[in-house]
Amino acid sequence: MISKEQVRKPLTVGEVAARSGVAVTALHFYETKGLIKSQRNAGNQRRYGREVLRRVALIKVAQRLGIPLAQIGDALQMLPDDRAPTAADWKILSERWRRELDERIEQLLLLRDRLDGCIGCGCLSMEACPLRNHGDVLGEQGPGPHFPND
Fold first, then answer.
1. pLDDT digit string, tens, across residues 84-93
2. Which residues in 114-147 are b (16+ Cβ under 10 Å) and which e?
């Protein structure tokens, strides 16, 4: 059993890394992005409250769901810094993310179904390809390249 004294004792970055399974460099990165916070001791070393462990767990679950770090950061800003996220906090965040995931799943299913059509065709026609140029919308923009990031 952990004593009250141990519960109040801040964790080093190495202890947080060991307990959370997240690399020290990732914890530093999360901190630079404002996802987690630390205090500095007299020797300028990071010290974390134990609530950071649940915040890191929440970050990792959200990342596994494909939620971008910027959105995770926005969500964490809604939560108080001085306590671990609660089940009620998670319910609010997960409902929000669930809608986004449902939309993404729907888009991926449509993409998959269109891809099946291309497998049979094989041409990837610039005029008729449902994936690259659905409905020849690029033809309406005139000749020349239309995808500057390709």
1. 888 898 898 8
2. eeeeeeeeeeeeeeebbeebeeeebeeeeeeeee
pTM beyond cutoff 0.70: no
Q: What is the pLDDT of residues 98-139, one digit of tens each?
A: 988 999 999 888 888 777 666 555 555 555 566 666 566 666
Spell out the long-range contacts of 39-48 with Cβ–Cβ below 8 A and sequence spacing 24 or more: 39/10, 41/10, 45/12, 45/13, 46/12, 46/13, 47/10, 47/11, 47/12, 48/10, 48/11, 48/12, 48/13, 48/16
CB 10 within 8 A of CB 48: yes
Give me 115's structure tokens.
Answer: 């891809």
H/E element, 116:
helix 87-121
Q: Evaluate whether 38 touches 13 at the Cβ level (below 8 Å).
A: yes
